[in-house]
Structures are given as C-alpha cells and as structure tokens.
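sry for the spam today, last one i promise. struct tokens for design, 241 residues
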C-alpha cells in the first residue's frame, strides 16, 4: 500500500489541529456558491471570529477519526468548515456569533446548507445551531449576567444600610414614649445573663430586707416583753410595801 503524499499528511495534521484548538465548528455544504459569494461569506465570518476553510472529505475523515469525533455522516458532498477562533482585534470569538453569521448568509443564499457542528466535544444538530445563532453575543450575555448579580447585591446593601437607621428610629420612639432615656438603654452592651443577675440580686435584697424587718420586729417584741415584766415586778414590789 503506497504511503500518503506529504502534502496530504500535512493537510490532515492541519485539520486535526484546527478541530482540537477551535471552540466550535460548523460544517456546511457550499455547492452552487460562486467565488464572489464564498468571499463575501468569508468576510462576514471573519468579522464574527470565524475562519471558513474548504477541505476534501477524505482528509477530514482521517483527522476526525484520530480525534474520536463521530461526524462522518456530515462529510457528504462539497464540505466547507467554519472554525470558531479569534476576532480581528484578537479577542476570543463567539460560537453564537459565527452561527448567526452563517444563518444570516443562508437567508439570502439558498445554496449554503448548514449540516451540523461541534461545540467543544458535543455534536450539534442543525436545530441546535439555529438556536445557538439566536442567542445574544457573549458580551451581551456577560453584561446581563453581571446585571442579574448586581441587582440583588444592591438591594442587599440598601437593606443593610437601612437596618441601623430603622433601629435608631425605634429606640428614639421608645425613649419618647417613656418620656426619657429608659433605664435599660445600655442593655445592649451588657451580656445576655445581665437581666437574670439583676433579678437574682433584687430577690436577694428583698430577702435580706424581710429578714432585717423580722429581726427588728423580734427585738421590739422582746423589749416590750422585758418592759412588761419589769413593770409587773415593780407593781408587786409596791404591793408588798
């Protein structure tokens, strides 16, 4: 079996590298497109970050077989491949933008047929490519995503800012209602156990007060009893005299 010619080997290697490096790939059939039409399509794809290349199906089959990509059913008829790469300014291309450029061109050029594609390692059908083409560009999606995150954060910041203000209003209303600064105004700076300690101390003070009153009453009763006994003794003494 003769060995393949070096130029064919080089093309297979090129196709293999393009499939490996591209963020997306769209396979088309260009039968019936003339040279000016293909040049126009290439210009529009270049602006979207796509590179439109024509290869022989046989060489493409060798390349995708080495990569394990099952797209041989798409390699029928004259095939041209749009690779998603970089925009003219060097920024990363968008697969949705490339798919949209192909879809827009096919609206006015019936000879361009979109057969399918790849997004990373996922095989895309024609319907999926059309849905991809309808998506907003990457920059717009990122802006929408940033806005979706920013809105809740802004609302949360507003709520956090309102909390101290509402708390101050509540405390002021309480002060005005009680006609002055409440005695428990500094309760926030004390530990949670402070009310319990205050209650226990009050009960202890009350118990000590009750005990003191009882002792005072007992002493008074004892003094009164002593006075009564002394008066009775004096009366008995007078009677004896």
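last one done:
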């Amino acid at each position: 079996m003769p060995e393949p010619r070096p130029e064919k080997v080089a093309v297979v290697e090129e196709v293999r590298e393009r499939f490996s490096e591209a963020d997306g790939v769209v396979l088309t059939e260009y039968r019936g497109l003339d040279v000016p039409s293909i040049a126009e399509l290439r210009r529009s794809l270049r602006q979207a970050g796509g590179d439109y290349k024509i290869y022989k199906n046989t060489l493409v089959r060798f390349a995708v077989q080495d990569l394990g990509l099952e797209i041989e059913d798409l390699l029928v008829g004259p095939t041209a491949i749009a690779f998603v790469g970089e925009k003219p300014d060097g920024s990363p291309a968008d697969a949705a933008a490339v798919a949209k450029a192909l879809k827009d061109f096919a609206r006015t050029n019936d000879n361009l047929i979109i057969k399918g594609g790849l997004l990373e390692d996922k095989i895309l059908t024609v319907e999926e490519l059309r849905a991809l083409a309808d998506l907003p560009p990457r920059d717009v999606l990122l802006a929408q995503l940033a806005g979706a995150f920013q809105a809740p954060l802004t609302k949360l910041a507003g709520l956090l800012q309102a909390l101290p203000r509402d708390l101050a209003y509540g405390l002021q209303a309480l002060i005005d209602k009680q006609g002055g600064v409440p005695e428990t105004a500094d309760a926030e700076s004390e530990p949670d156990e402070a009310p319990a300690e205050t209650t226990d101390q009050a009960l202890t003070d009350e118990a000590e007060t009750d005990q003191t009153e009882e002792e005072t009453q007992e002493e008074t009763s004892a003094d009164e009893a002593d006075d009564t006994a002394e008066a009775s003794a004096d009366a008995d003494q007078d009677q004896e005299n």
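Confidence is low (pLDDT under 50) at residues 184-200, 235-241. ok im logging off now
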